[in-house]
Amino acid sequence: IGKTTIARALFNQLSPDFQLKCFMGNLKGSYGSNGMDDHNSKLCLQSQLLSEILKQKDLKIHHLGAVKEWLQDQRVLIVLDDVDDLE
What residue spans define the domains of the chain? Predict the structure, then answer.
Protein backbone atom coordinates (compact mmCIF):
# COMPACT_ATOMS: atom_id res chain seq x y z
CA ILE A 1 0.00 0.00 0.00
CA GLY A 2 1.46 3.36 -0.98
CA LYS A 3 1.47 6.86 0.48
CA THR A 4 -1.08 8.15 -2.02
CA THR A 5 -3.45 5.29 -1.20
CA ILE A 6 -3.17 6.07 2.51
CA ALA A 7 -3.62 9.81 1.89
CA ARG A 8 -6.72 9.15 -0.26
CA ALA A 9 -8.22 6.79 2.35
CA LEU A 10 -7.71 9.36 5.12
CA PHE A 11 -9.17 12.09 2.92
CA ASN A 12 -12.25 9.97 2.20
CA GLN A 13 -12.66 9.14 5.89
CA LEU A 14 -12.25 12.72 7.15
CA SER A 15 -13.90 14.72 4.36
CA PRO A 16 -17.54 14.42 5.58
CA ASP A 17 -16.56 16.57 8.59
CA PHE A 18 -15.52 19.51 6.40
CA GLN A 19 -17.55 22.11 4.51
CA LEU A 20 -15.03 22.32 1.68
CA LYS A 21 -12.45 19.76 0.61
CA CYS A 22 -9.89 19.12 -2.08
CA PHE A 23 -7.43 16.33 -2.88
CA MET A 24 -4.79 17.48 -5.35
CA GLY A 25 -2.35 14.86 -6.57
CA ASN A 26 0.61 14.68 -8.91
CA LEU A 27 1.99 18.07 -7.93
CA LYS A 28 5.63 17.02 -8.14
CA GLY A 29 7.36 19.27 -10.62
CA SER A 30 4.10 20.70 -11.96
CA TYR A 31 4.70 24.28 -10.95
CA GLY A 32 8.43 24.81 -10.57
CA SER A 33 9.63 23.54 -13.90
CA ASN A 34 7.14 25.13 -16.28
CA GLY A 35 9.08 28.33 -16.98
CA MET A 36 7.13 30.48 -14.52
CA ASP A 37 8.85 32.38 -11.76
CA ASP A 38 8.19 31.37 -8.16
CA HIS A 39 5.50 34.00 -7.54
CA ASN A 40 3.51 33.11 -10.68
CA SER A 41 3.85 29.39 -9.94
CA LYS A 42 2.31 29.95 -6.51
CA LEU A 43 -0.49 32.07 -8.00
CA CYS A 44 -1.23 29.32 -10.51
CA LEU A 45 -1.30 26.62 -7.83
CA GLN A 46 -3.56 28.72 -5.59
CA SER A 47 -5.90 29.47 -8.50
CA GLN A 48 -6.20 25.76 -9.23
CA LEU A 49 -6.72 24.99 -5.55
CA LEU A 50 -9.51 27.56 -5.15
CA SER A 51 -11.14 26.47 -8.41
CA GLU A 52 -11.26 22.87 -7.18
CA ILE A 53 -12.45 23.72 -3.66
CA LEU A 54 -15.13 26.19 -4.75
CA LYS A 55 -16.14 24.17 -7.85
CA GLN A 56 -15.62 27.17 -10.15
CA LYS A 57 -13.80 26.77 -13.45
CA ASP A 58 -10.69 28.85 -14.14
CA LEU A 59 -10.89 31.02 -11.04
CA LYS A 60 -8.16 33.67 -11.24
CA ILE A 61 -6.46 35.21 -8.24
CA HIS A 62 -4.11 38.16 -8.24
CA HIS A 63 -2.34 37.95 -4.87
CA LEU A 64 -1.02 35.17 -2.66
CA GLY A 65 -3.34 35.95 0.27
CA ALA A 66 -6.49 35.13 -1.72
CA VAL A 67 -6.82 31.56 -0.46
CA LYS A 68 -6.77 32.72 3.16
CA GLU A 69 -9.31 35.46 2.43
CA TRP A 70 -11.75 33.16 0.60
CA LEU A 71 -11.53 30.28 3.07
CA GLN A 72 -10.88 31.92 6.44
CA ASP A 73 -14.31 31.21 7.95
CA GLN A 74 -14.76 27.70 6.53
CA ARG A 75 -13.80 24.22 7.70
CA VAL A 76 -11.52 23.12 4.88
CA LEU A 77 -9.61 19.89 4.26
CA ILE A 78 -6.82 20.17 1.70
CA VAL A 79 -4.52 17.30 0.81
CA LEU A 80 -1.60 18.03 -1.51
CA ASP A 81 -0.16 14.73 -2.65
CA ASP A 82 3.21 14.11 -4.27
CA VAL A 83 4.74 17.48 -3.40
CA ASP A 84 8.50 17.74 -3.73
CA ASP A 85 9.09 21.37 -2.68
CA LEU A 86 8.00 22.95 0.61
CA GLU A 87 8.12 26.45 -0.85
Answer: 3-80
The residues that bridge with 21 in the sheet, in sequence order, are: 77
CB 48 within 8 A of CB 24: yes
Nearest CA to 75 among 20, 14, 13? Answer: 20
Q: How far apart are CA 7 and CA 35, in angstroms?
A: 29
At residue 18, the pLDDT reads 96
- In this prediction, residue 35 carries a pLDDT of 65
Residues of the chain with pLDDT under 70: 28-35, 85-87
pTM: 0.76
Coil, strand or helix at 80 = strand
Residue 80 β-bridge partners: 24
